[in-house]
Write a structure and sequence with these properties.
This protein has helices at 4-36, 65-71, 88-97, 99-105, and strands spanning 42-48, 51-63, 109-122. The chain is α+β, with helices and mostly antiparallel strands. The chain folds into 2 domains: 1-36; 39-122, no CATH class. Strands 1-2-3 form a 3-stranded antiparallel sheet. Helix 3 packs across helix 4 (99-105).
Length: 124
């Protein structure tokens, strides 16, 4: 029967190996993204030998409700990209189709890149 030190020691080593494996995985993902490229937003699938690699770029969008309340009267309510949760499709619509209204909204938005994801499965 193993004692508590042996178990704790094995757990410590397992957690360390897990951290190292995660760091290696992230480095490999970043290397694949550097080679295959990424979209700012959206996914693209690549056939790489017998693998199918999908790289997905993401952007996080948040809204400052106090600032939105200050500018909302300048945007027709039917075009509000919010329902007290941010309507990302509506934000994209304003950015692409109503740039003047997007400019009014933009001080209330936080728009930043999110983590790019990489998935890999056998059988391309």
């Amino acid at each position: 029967m193993r004692n508590e030190f042996e178990i704790a020691d094995d757990l410590f080593k397992a957690k360390q190996a897990e951290r190292e494996a995660e760091e290696r995985r992230i480095a490999l993902e970043e290397e694949l993204v550097a080679v295959l490229g990424k979209r700012e937003e959206g996914s693209k699938t690549h056939a790489v030998g017998s693998y199918k690699v999908t790289i997905t770029g993401r952007i996080n969008r948040k809204i400052d409700w106090e600032l939105f309340d200050q500018v909302s009267s300048k945007i027709p309510e039917t075009l509000w990209p919010v329902k007290r949760t941010l309507d990302v499709t509506g934000v994209k619509y304003l950015a692409n189709n109503e740039p003047q209204l997007y400019k009014v909204l933009s001080p209330a938005l936080t728009v930043e890149p999110a983590k790019t994801t990489v998935s890999i499965v056998m059988g391309a």
